Structure formats: structure tokens, C-alpha cells
Amino acid sequence: MPFHHNNFERLGDTFRLKIGFDKSVVFSRDAGFLQYVLQKNQRNYTKSKIQTEDLAKYVGKGLLTSEGALWKQQRKLIQPAFHKKQLENLLDTMQKTISDELQKIKTGKPFEIFKVYNDLAFQVVAKSLFSGGVSDSQVKRLQHITEEAQKMLVRELRQPYLHWWFKISGTLQKNLNLTLEAREILKQLVIDRKGSRVREDDLLDMLLDARYEDGNAMDEEQLIDEILILFTAGHETTSNALTFTSQLLAKHPNYQQKIVEEVRAAKVETDSLMEFLRNVPVTTRIIEESLRLYPPAYFIDRVNIEEDEFNGMKLEKGTSLLFAVHEIHKSETHWENPMQFIPERFANKNYSDYAAYYYPFGAGPRMCIGNNFAMYEMVLAIAILCENFSIQQKKDTIEINPLITLKPKNAILTFERR
Ligand code: HEM
Fold this sequence. Notes:
Layout: H1 2-11, E1 14-19, E2 23-28, H2 31-40, E3 45-46, H3 50-59, H4 68-78, H5 84-87, H6 91-102, E4 110-112, H7 114-130, H8 136-158, H9 163-168, H10 171-195, H11 203-209, H12 220-251, H13 253-269, H14 273-278, H15 281-293, E5 299-304, E6 308-310, E7 313-315, E8 320-324, H16 325-328, H17 351-354, H18 371-388, E9 389-392, E10 399-402, E11 406-409, E12 412-417
Parallel strand pairs: 2-8
Antiparallel strand pairs: 1-2, 3-5, 4-12, 5-8, 6-7, 9-12, 10-11
Helix pairs in contact: 3-8, 6-7, 6-18, 7-12, 8-10, 10-12, 12-15, 12-18, 13-15, 13-18
The structure holds protoporphyrin IX containing FE.
């Protein structure tokens, strides 16, 4: 990221880098350009090969990896399952899963927190989908396979010259076999649910109930693709954000106290989790500020279908565009004291006041379908965390590891029970 920052400072808010003979990549931190590509002229833009073909090899053609008519049809079908009203049904399961997972925090000594959040985020998606119908060993295996696929994808992207070796050494095939194993586990879970008379009102029930315009339901293979995608899209991003938020809270302990006070007061007011979520604005702002400073999806990429032009820059058909969300989030043009952690900047503001330069969940028709899900999950997790633990950090710095997502590095914190 410092490398990108220096390039932007040197070459301007939008610049082009030649890659090889005939290819170039346009990097931009111009929020207006991002809006043009993701919203205003989104019809002329598709996702990159990495987000579609390369990832689809492991997780199939679901929402994140599909394009065109298939994506449109799937988005329309799945969107209602992520409406706030439907998500309300998942909140009890989410809360219970989070409380159980946070029990794994070790107190009194330096402790690497990322692993706890990684398991937590996977468990939350798994339990939101399958309720009690999925065993611990099935969840563990699915998580292992999802993470192996992600690691393999990173290796393929970082070392494209080793593609031949991945192929002949059997590494690639081993990962593809793992994916097949995950599909078998999911198939069995779906068969079990279809055969059961119990209604769980969870995400799987929503996906099984959903009907296309012609009255048909999703076929089994498509359903499994979508489930694999929800695991992939919903787990690492959330665990990164929860880790960064905990590190920020360790650096700014006065905000831990604010959360504890707010959470205790909100719990007295209501037993409804949805109401509780509405009554904890300070906790919500802290997470929003963490997503501004450390957006897990720190780059958003697109490729144009037909030739285009923006602000005088000609974009030949097939140009790769990379939008640096982390740079837009730290622009002095849009944010006051952008490098500082100031959750109050979101106070008394509506999302529409800052939406033009705040993109943790993307924008336009392909904006994250799980944004409310993720916010509910993160607010509950941080509320439960602070209610039960105080957090300290020795180092003053927050280390990052920018891969496909912006990952934390050495997130070693010390927790004490409150
Ligand atoms: C902090 C957590 C999360 C962040 C920062 C995040 C961020 C994003 C971003 C930026 C995109 C758009 C990518 C693009 O336009 O190229 C996206 C798409 C997506 N996200 Fe999330 N996400 C998070 C959590 C989740 C969760 C919890 C789920 C599901 C349970 C989820 C499911 C998806 C799906 C399915 C897409 C593809 C949507 C489509 O193309 O129609 N995400 N996410």
C-alpha cells in the first residue's frame, strides 16, 4: 500500500501502468471515476478475470464470480434473503455463535486474535445458512477447504510463472479435489434439509424457497455455487474488519469504555436484537471508521467491454481498472484529518452524506449483498467483546498484509476479563 500511495503522489489520482507489450492497467483514487464505472456507466464494465474465472475455478459461478444474465437473475433471486426483515430471523443464531466463539479468547497474555475472528466469521455464515443442521466437523472441513482455495488463488496470482508446476505437481488438482469434497458435504446438507419437516427460517430455507420469474427454484448445483460464494465472500472480509477494529480499540481504550456504557444501556432498554442494533450508534460508528481506515476490500477492479473515456482519458476496450478504495477513504479532499481514528465524523450524518467517497462495500448494482449482514455481525461481535473483555496492545502500529483482501498481520493483543 505505501507503494501505491507513492505512485499516486508521484503520478496523480489516475495513472496508467504498462504491463507487457500491449496491456496496461489504470490505477485510480478518483471517487468520481469509481462512481462512473461502478454506477453511472456500469453496463460497460465487467469484473476482472481474477474475480470471475480464477476464483470460479474453486467456488463455481455464484453471485461474486458470475456476470451478465446469470448474475442478474441470481442477484434478483437472492437479494430478498438479505433484506433487513429476513436478517432479523438470523440475529439470535448470530449472537449465540459469536458469544461461543469469543469464549476462545485467552486472557492475561499476548494473544493472536485473527484466528478467533476467522473461525467466528465462518461459523456465523455456516450457522446462518444451516442452523443446527451442520456438525462441527463439517464446518471445520468446509472452512479448511475454503481457506485452502483462497491460499491457492493467492499463490497462482503471485507466482503465475509456476502455473506449469502447480499443474504437474498435482497441487492444482489437490485443490480442485478439495472443492469437490466441499460440494459433496453441501449436497448432503441440502438433501437433509429437503427431507426434514422442520422449518428453520435460516438462509438455506430462504434460498430453497426463492423462485425465479418462471416459478422454478434454483437447481442444486447453482445453490451449492452460491453457498460456496457466501463462505468465500463473507468470511475473510469480516474477520479482517473485526481484527482491525479490535486493534483500533486497543489503541484508543476510551472507546472501549464508550461501547461498554452504550451496550449496557441498550440492553436495559430492549430484549429485541434488532432494536438493540439500532440503539448502539457509537459502536456502529467505530466499525464504520475502522472500515474507512482499513477497508478489507481495498481495491475494486473492473474491465471495460467497449471503448470508453473519462475526463479526457481514453480507455481502450478491455482496459483493466483498479480503484484504490483505501486511498479514497484517506483523501484530504473528502475527509478531515483522514489518517486519524475519529468515529464521531459519522455522527449526525446519513449514509448519503458520505456515500460518494466511502466504499467499504463497493457501489452500484454489484455492491456487497451481505453489507447489512456483515454490519449486524460486526456490531454484535464488538459489543459482546467489549462487554466481556478489556483489550490492550503493546505496539502502537497496526501491521497490514495486502493480499486479495487487506489482511491484518501480527494482531497480537492482550485481553482481560471485565
Ligand atoms: C466487512 C465485511 C465485508 C466487506 C468489507 C465486503 C465487501 C464487499 C465488496 C467491496 C463487494 C463488491 C466487490 C466488487 O464490486 O467488485 C462485495 C461483494 C459481495 N459480498 Fe461482501 N463484504 C463483506 C461481507 C460479506 C458477507 C458477510 C457476505 C455474505 C454473507 C458477503 C457477500 C458478498 C457477495 C455475495 C458479493 C457479490 C455481490 C454481487 O456481485 O452481486 N459479503 N463485498
